[in-house]
Amino acid sequence: MTATIKLGQLAEFLGATLRGDPEKAITGLATLQEAGPAQLSFLANPQYRKYLVDSRAAALLLKADDAEGFAGDALIVPDPYLAYARISHLFDPKPKSAAGIHPSAVIAADAIVDPTASIGPFVVIESAARIGAGVTLGAHCFVGARSEIGEGGWLAPRVTLYHDVRIGKRVVIQSGAVLGGEGFGFANEKGVWQKIAQIGGVTVGDDVEIGVNTAIDRGALADTVIGNGVKLDNQIQIAHNVQVGDHTAMAACVGISGSTKIGRHCMLAGGVGLVGHIEICDNVFLTGMTMVTHSITEPGSYSSGTAMQPAAEWRKSAARIRQLDDMARRLRQLEKRVGDVTPGGNASSDG
Amino acid sequence: MTATIKLGQLAEFLGATLRGDPEKAITGLATLQEAGPAQLSFLANPQYRKYLVDSRAAALLLKADDAEGFAGDALIVPDPYLAYARISHLFDPKPKSAAGIHPSAVIAADAIVDPTASIGPFVVIESAARIGAGVTLGAHCFVGARSEIGEGGWLAPRVTLYHDVRIGKRVVIQSGAVLGGEGFGFANEKGVWQKIAQIGGVTVGDDVEIGVNTAIDRGALADTVIGNGVKLDNQIQIAHNVQVGDHTAMAACVGISGSTKIGRHCMLAGGVGLVGHIEICDNVFLTGMTMVTHSITEPGSYSSGTAMQPAAEWRKSAARIRQLDDMARRLRQLEKRVGDVTPGGNASSDG
Amino acid sequence: MTATIKLGQLAEFLGATLRGDPEKAITGLATLQEAGPAQLSFLANPQYRKYLVDSRAAALLLKADDAEGFAGDALIVPDPYLAYARISHLFDPKPKSAAGIHPSAVIAADAIVDPTASIGPFVVIESAARIGAGVTLGAHCFVGARSEIGEGGWLAPRVTLYHDVRIGKRVVIQSGAVLGGEGFGFANEKGVWQKIAQIGGVTVGDDVEIGVNTAIDRGALADTVIGNGVKLDNQIQIAHNVQVGDHTAMAACVGISGSTKIGRHCMLAGGVGLVGHIEICDNVFLTGMTMVTHSITEPGSYSSGTAMQPAAEWRKSAARIRQLDDMARRLRQLEKRVGDVTPGGNASSDG
């Protein structure tokens, strides 16, 4: 499970400038502070530059500037973090599954499974589903009728795709994720909720990652759509008819309400919530736990919420917020009266 | 997978007034803007009235008023959205499972499974459980000891019911939901948490829907109780001993803490959180991400949180909120002093 | 499924002072208000003292002080809630699984399963995994390569451990939990996210409890670490490289971002969110839905958010918060001007 790769091979793989012994054996990756004498490390964040001098790492991924001030072996690259990302896969202990179908799997006669795919124990594949070349389906995965997984996909154990879920190429889905669940669609008839069948599906682009226990509901009429290169962390909720633009990333615990449309290259930090039927333009960054109640038409960073305080102080602030409207009126009144008694008073803006 | 139904048949099914060709074949449903010439659409939201003129739909579900201004075929009904809800099921491509038990299922000898039920691959049903008439258990479902599912229930693949979970009739449970998990019950003994066995169960009424990856914990002593007609969206957390009144609906990512009691016909928008041991009366609407820290005794709408701002402005607001108590005191002080120097000053209310 | 235990036996088990009939048969536990004549109850919260007089319980767990004012049978103990916690397990109807491996389980030839462990239907155990003495693995559990579960562990049906997840002794994991998922690690290359392999694992201490559908990601380089005695409720997200100190408890729906370190004996209420790369010291209490954006270095209680209001009032408050910076400047200006016209004016603090 532990790879051993020579420093010179890593330089070649990365197209890096090697400074040091090309024969040095690298057995893993670690942080600057924790790396041992057979491990490679990297400096990406300037804050950690102070750890360079004491690092015991076999070698470091460094920018040219940083390499000048470092005496040890180095692989010099333009972007050390990206270089680390690329070689991390060489040291990944994740088991690779062999091609073939586990004898316990239950596969519909008219499902199409590429012979290079790996189908784990207790997998269920329903009628007319299609599993592409090189796809891995972990144990206990369920692929519903007519659903499709493009080539190179990797599904952890226990992923559920309902029927009519179309997944692009090289998509990674973590355990517990559910795609195609029946969205929250009900019509109210005199106080009683009547279910609306969710007859759309889900379309997921290429190179998407979907995290642990994340849910993406099927569309009510048309498909819910996840663009190419989208990265969704764990415990996310994507409601029916949502559209997520290419290369947008969402951290854990985000919730997107129905029919909302999110642009390309957006970043949603953890716990963000969006109401339904709004549009977020491209290149929007939402800080953690922001509550988004209307569309955003300008790129940029947005936030909501209050700063944490010691609980006793917070209780005062929270009480005062409820008085704010009254305070604002009293402030305006004071301004008028002070304006009356101070002849030079200039009217201040009433926001 | 695609149904074809004549327009006249749909009129009959709905009790609608048909205006147009009863023999026209309808193959599906779509929005006004997307419907093609074999698809039915509907106008429910007046905002979309502008799309009527260009709709290519085969026919529309319309109110009588709207039908007057529309030239094409129509099914005239009092509530088009409700009519759409009713006929949506006719076009639902969701596979129907045949009655019978998949040979891979593991079923305790003393469990009772109605012969009309459909039990999928790798299902586990434990001792003394009861599965009612017409129930569907998707692949990988687990039904614990003595648990019961009433007639007409539909459980997606991979639903877990622990022991002593009693489910009413026609209940729908989406994939990944877990009912009867052991609630968060611990007694603190000198800083160390001692587990309290959760010996109650879960009772779920009729016509309930439970969303993807939603958790409903078992009661500590008595049951956790979900009323009739309750609709729970995805990723919801219902803690031990909670009671939810009939026909209450909760959108995704809501969290209800232990022993809290929620009334009938309430609506909780996404991301709402409730502390434990409080009561919410009937007909309460909580807007998204509201933090509920005390009981609510009056019907109506309630909210908390701050409005989203560009991040730079938000940082200023957040800093000012921490100064609010100081600001309020200074405002009061100014009022007193201005009252002193301005003879006609009338005291303003100190909220 | 219902235990019957004599009152005298319970007194002996608890080391309690018995007042009443040692032969009285106890068949279960219930609250003061609901207990019937064969059930034991307890008084822990003084608020419930009013229910003592009408309780129909067979006997009560009471402090000596409370026992003086109560006429019925009693078990007198120093901490009734803790005593209730201890005896609750005697009345727990949770089925016990017999030792042995279900014939449907798929177990790698080089995995080591203690003969006293109970392995349920459709369990998958991969290469070089180790299952300790007395461990229960519920149906559909998945244990990845080289993962280990210490003695006495209890995993509900459908728990997923990826590879290289090391679990201590007596750990309880509820259904749907996923340990070792691939954390949210990506490097941005010209707007496109490149995946970083997550080569660390997860280490979980002894006596930990992990709730329904909770996710704990594997470390990027080193392990994600959960200390001894930690209790995690449902729907929690623990990102990669997080460290949680011993005996810390988190209620449902908490989200901890990557590389954050949480101290010992902390309590996080429901829905709390923490940004990444911060440190929380020991003995911190975070109230529900608090947004934590920086480290905490002093023990104590902390909060954020605004108090719930009727929605119409809340809209005014929310609008005013956006004007706060302007209000604060206007207030300062007024103070200066009033200071000018009132000779005795002393400058107030500008917070």
Automatic annotation (TrEMBL), chains A, B, C:
UniProt-listed InterPro entries: Hexapep, Hexapep_transf_CS, LpxD, Trimer_LpxA-like_sf, UDP_GlcNAc_AcTrfase_non-rep
GO molecular function: UDP-3-O-[(3R)-3-hydroxyacyl]-glucosamine N-acyltransferase activity
EC number: 2.3.1.191
PROSITE patterns named among the record's database cross-references: HEXAPEP_TRANSFERASES
Alphabetically ordered keywords of this record: Acyltransferase, Lipid A biosynthesis, Lipid biosynthesis, Lipid metabolism, Repeat, Transferase
Coiled-coil segments: none
Enzyme class, UniProt record, top EC level: transferase
Alphabetical list of HAMAP family matching this protein: LpxD
Family as reported in the entry's similarity comment: Belongs to the transferase hexapeptide repeat family. LpxD subfamily.
Name of the protein described by the UniProt record: UDP-3-O-acylglucosamine N-acyltransferase
Gene: lpxD
